[in-house]
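Intended use. Records like the one below are meant for learning the mapping from a protein sequence to its folded structure. Do not use them to infer anything beyond what is encoded.
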Amino acid sequence: MNGKQQQGNEPDRLSIEEIRSRLKALGYLESPVERFLSRSSGGTWSSGVMVTAKAALLIGLLLAGLTTASTLLADPGFIGNSLDVFLFLSYLGAAYSLGAFCILLIPALLWVRKKKRAAEIISGGTLRSAVLSTFTASVLCAYLLSWWHLVMTGSQQILPLGVVSLSVLAAIALISLMAGRTIGLVYFLLAGVPESSRSRQNMVTRGYIFSLVAVLMIEGAWTAGFFRHYRADHTLNAAVHEYSIRPLPVLLVGLDGLDSEMFFTLSGVDNLPNLTRLMEGGFTAELATQKNYLAPQVWTTVATGVKPEEHGINHFTRPVLHGMSRPPRLGNSRPGLKLVFEQIFPFLRLVRPVPLSANSRMTKTLWEIVELFGTPSGVVNWWASWPASSSNGFTVSERTFSRIMPARRTQPIKPSTYYNEEVFPPAEFDSLVVLSAGLEKTFDSVLTEYQLISDLLEKDLPQKARELIRSIYFADYFHVRVATELARRHGVKFLALYIQGPDILSRLEERTDLVDPGSLEGLIPEYFRFIDRLLGELLNSYQPAGLVAAVCDPGKKGRLRDLKGVVIFNGVDVKKGFRKEVPIYLEDVAPSILYLIGLPVASDMGGKALTETGTPGPGGAMSLRFVTSYGPPPLFRKSPPDYRHDSEEIKRFRSLGYVK
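Structure written out for the chain above:
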């Protein structure tokens, strides 16, 4: 009776000293971190929130440190400079901590609310703590392994099961166990600490063993599955060594704004003689695209063979956290982080918009792939090619034309003012300024051959509209001539050129402040005659002996109407006069080109190689071969960004109707 009375008279809350004494008897409070957590114990609502916040902060910092370090091991270009690494770690730690706090807060408050008198603590408390610890360790281990899996498959070379991988796996196991132990401690601090006994101590010890066994089983299963699928003979180094013969020369032309209906109509009346010649002598198929895709998504998918959620280029601009020089390479494949960095942080106004760049792209392009095999490449005006870089060729990025024109009109030219990595090699920037000045002297005579264009420019249009329309034509004229000149000068064997004028011209109809609706409709077919002539001049001077690939996308207006584009392959190993009845997809273009020039296709490409396009011949289209991954592109930017150039580029996007 006296025992029951004593039990009934026991106070609701234990003293801090008693709580610590019982926790020590269970094996806790052996580290300063655990002692720090126990300072907020007390069984009240405020103490529950405080304990939860401390535990969430600890778990968030552990996760942020491991994910950042492991990613940098395999992809040093994941983030920019050392300041970026620190800021990324801080933002990521805050995001993880906030997420952990939201997950833990509700059960933590429920534990406080349901807490019974200290002597009436549920007898299964230690069992529940062990279950919580094991569950937490297992979930975190699975999450971290999914991160490491994506890091390894996206690295430029699949990391072997060596010191690095074993170290990361050991760190994953250790952090998972630490997080599980922390959650067990939080449960005791909030739900109540039972009096120590030998059986209860054994149960807590069993909980540690359960967590360790679960973590090791998860890691063992992942390791066996991963290295069974990604064998050493599928690595990039093995592929480069095996395919030592250089691939066939390639000309890749991207034409934005030409749908299949208009293409076949104009081709039928001989308004596109050069494209028609390529079609009749090669393989033709309609191109299916997505209605909601933007131009950078379309053309980066064409160049990489993966969908936008994988290559990371999803808009004309990207949000960058304040203080960071560039956005980290975060696609949908980074578990949970794309939502945080592109939705939550912008909502909290922690970001600023910057134009898209190659640093945000998570996969290599075709021209970067062929350079791995010793083929010099050139690229002109392709989306996400800035900052310009090339190991053995040239790059004229999508920012070049907008920088060249102001530089030409302001003398003297000051590279520190105008040049911002738009061109590679950098010395070509000055040569392009001179070339643009010479081209403009003869450009008006070129336009007189196209009556509709001349008539439109002589109409009673606002001066701003006439200047904008003329600049659209001159930009394509400039880019084709640049491609021709630099390809000859640098002797490249892979040339990629993007022509965007038709799409921009169709967008101008939305600018009711400049032109009347429908006034430019008849100009679009005439523009394609202009483009076909430029393409003919390029083919006459740069006719590769290997493959010509012309990719025509219907443009923004065509995509909204569910129109199809056109893809033409013409080359030594391409079927002649063959037209595929079923449309192909954007992501099928890159693997098909690799197949036709004799290079292996990456298994992580979302598209498939169209083997029906090729025939055995002197080229490489004989059998379809694979490599696991070509990995992410290198980090290009070596200097701090110039935010003034970014704001000018965004202003240009607005003038062309790309962004609001």
